[in-house]
Write a structure and sequence with these properties.
Elements lengths: L1 E2 L2 E9 L3 E8 L4 E11 L6 H12 L8 E7 L3 E2 L4 E2 L15 H8 L3 E8 H12 L7 E7 L3 E7 L2 E3 L15 E2 L2 E2 L6 H12 L6 H9 L3 H25 L3 E5 L6 H15 L1 H4 L3 E4 L6 H10 L1 H6 L12
Parallel strand pairs: 2-5, 5-8, 9-14, 14-15
Antiparallel strand pairs: 1-2, 2-3, 3-4, 6-7, 9-10, 10-11, 12-13
């Protein structure tokens, strides 16, 4: 874990189309050895194919001594045992029941420790430890992409229950217009709404965003309605949880100019008393936050020695 006397942990973030690996310097809260490395990954591939992509990506990093690894993966996943629980989520079906911990331990050199964490939790912890939520005791983060990821954080601890915290701390369990939230707020929902408004075969979200910026009224309305709805759904739980910052990441957050205003308007509509006091911001490290957060979770006692409050090694789905 040490490089030149400084604590370093190797990390990976696993997504549906790629895997990213990096070495995180715990002292500087940054990436080392050339930054992050990415390899393509087919989330619908076989377990062997997925494992091969992870091992190829990991090979870009120097071997530490001892070699401590932290891996951020989306749920549903048994983070304690390192076994996939995917079924009907559109990716990683081949990892259902697959012991990824054993497979990686056998495939990576000199593994001294290997931990897993939820990717949304890692993202928010990374922004709390080193990014946009740094200095805030109580924070909420969401990721916008194929669905809505989320994490409710207080004093560096991931919370799964309590005032304002949805079931398991997951915003996607909430409902809007008598439907699961992700039927309104997600990549597929945005595309479906644009198709319904225009009668066109919908382009991807990036193109819809560009059309909105170029004056396409239907595209602008889709963004306004989608993220206004998200704000209205988030209003009551945030009022009860009382965070001082809401950090937004994920691929759709790249269109922050189209997301921020309707999101705040929706929050204000349902929670006018508190919405004005919450800092609403895009991620400071959108590409690195999950890597940083995974490293933090894996080395919380080390981070404590370097000046952070003591935190548990949280495992959350």
């Amino acid at each position: 874990m040490n490089s030149g006397g400084r604590p370093v942990v190797s990390v990976m973030e696993v997504g549906g189309t790629h895997v990213t690996a990096a070495s995180v310097d715990i002292e500087t809260r940054g990436l080392r050895f050339g930054g992050a490395f990415r390899e393509a990954l087919d989330g619908n591939g076989s377990a062997a194919d997925i494992l091969s992509a992870l091992v190829r990506c990991a090979a870009h990093l120097p071997v530490q001594s001892p070699n401590r690894w932290a891996v951020a993966v989306p749920g549903p996943f048994d983070y304690e045992r390192g076994i996939g629980q995917y079924e009907g989520v559109g990716k990683f079906d081949a990892l259902r029941g697959f012991d990824l911990r054993a497979a990686l331990t056998a495939s990576l050199p000199d593994v001294a420790d290997l931990s897993f964490c939820n990717d949304a939790d890692a993202f928010v912890l990374g922004e709390w430890w080193a990014g946009a939520a740094r200095g805030h005791r109580t924070a909420v983060g969401i990721t916008l992409g194929t669905g809505v990821g989320s994490c409710f954080l207080r004093d560096g601890r991931v919370l799964q229950h309590g005032p304002g915290v949805p079931s398991e701390g997951r915003v996607h369990t909430l409902r809007y217009a008598d439907k699961p939230l992700e039927e309104t707020v997600s990549r597929r929902a945005l595309r479906r709404a644009y198709a319904a408004a225009t009668g066109e075969v919908p382009p991807d979200v990036r193109e819809i965003a560009q059309r909105a910026r170029q004056g396409d009224r239907a595209a602008a309305d889709v963004f306004a309605e989608t993220f206004g709805a998200l704000g209205r759904v988030l209003g009551p739980p945030l009022a009860a949880f009382e965070p001082t910052v809401l950090v937004v990441g994920g691929s759709i957050a790249r269109a922050w100019d189209l997301v921020a205003e309707p999101l705040r308007a929706g929050l204000t509509e349902t929670d006018p008393a508190h919405a004005g006091s919450i800092v609403i911001t895009s991620a400071q490290y959108p590409a690195e936050a999950a890597l940083l957060g995974a490293a933090y979770l894996a080395t919380a006692p080390v981070a404590t020695a370097l000046g952070e409050p003591r935190r548990g090694r949280t495992r959350s789905s």
